[in-house]
Design brief:
- By secondary structure, the protein is of the alpha+beta class.
- 41% of the residues lie in helices and 23% in strands.
- It has one domain.
- Helix 2 packs across helix 6 and helix 2 runs parallel beside helix 8.
- The termini are far apart.
Length: 255
């Protein structure tokens, strides 16, 4: 009847979870924020990695563009007759658009550059691999300005050195600086260098300098993990943005 009241419903006690069940609930509720935090952390690392890779690709392209300007400038400089004569016989060129030198008489130098290698069969110049150069030297140096440096790889031994992760000029590969040091030593040296300074120091000693592969730049520039062997020997890495550098070097070595 409509006037009846469901007494059992009215006085039914709420079901209270047991202590064990409450603990499970609390543990479960704590797992969600931890999972979210871990996920956010992983995503943030990925975003940072992508951003760093993009920045490194921009920096690598800047090295390539500056190398184009340097190669064209060296080719047009009437005072660089010694350089233009030697560069025609080079198997590879490591172009360092800016090497920073400091101090008086005792100083350090360092910079990043792009290496291009000529294919022995086709005569074509390949795509660049990126390297860093660093040294602490004692020699005839005055000033603290930037230098433009081109290293000319003249022998197979010099080429083999560049396929390692790092090597030292003068130890792992014989070295001569020109044109001042371009005498008898230059005739047999694995690597020759020519530097042009915008500053006031007289010469630049690279003997003992360490050359290392710049793996992160290589990966960023080609969009995958590549070694100098992949770029230079296997020729499995291509970036059309470096075609201007290849053309500039080809023109320099045939003029």
């Amino acid at each position: 009847m409509w006037g009846q009241v469901d007494v059992t419903r009215q006085f039914r006690k709420p079901v209270v979870p047991s202590g064990k069940y409450q603990n499970l609930q609390r543990r479960g509720s704590m797992k969600i924020p931890k999972f979210i935090m871990i996920s956010c952390f992983v995503v943030s690392l990925f975003v940072v990695s992508v951003a760093q890779g993009a920045d490194q690709k921009v920096e690598a392209q800047a090295i390539v563009d500056k190398s184009v300007a340097l190669v064209n400038s060296f080719g047009a400089d009437s005072d660089l007759e010694w350089f233009r004569k030697k560069v025609k016989d080079a198997k590879a060129l490591l172009v360092i658009p800016q090497s920073i030198k400091g101090a008086f008489f005792v100083g350090g130098s360092g910079g990043s550059g792009a290496l291009v290698v000529q294919d022995g069969n086709t005569g074509k110049w390949g795509y660049p691999a990126f390297y860093t150069l660093g040294s602490i030297s004692v020699g005839l140096q005055v000033g603290g300005e930037a230098s433009e440096v081109v290293l000319m790889v003249m022998t197979d031994r010099g080429m083999e050195s560049l396929l390692t992760s790092s090597f030292k000029l003068g130890a792992d590969a014989t070295f001569a600086a020109g044109p001042v040091g371009g005498g008898a030593t230059a005739q047999t040296a694995d690597i020759l260098s020519y530097s042009r300074s915008k500053g006031a120091f007289v010469g630049m000693s690279l003997d003992g300098a360490v050359i290392k592969t710049k793996d992160k730049f290589n990966a960023a520039y080609y969009g995958k993990t590549v070694s100098p062997t992949d770029i230079i020997v296997r020729q499995s890495a291509i970036n059309p943005d470096a075609d201007a550098l290849r053309a500039a070097v080809a023109q320099l070595t045939t003029q």
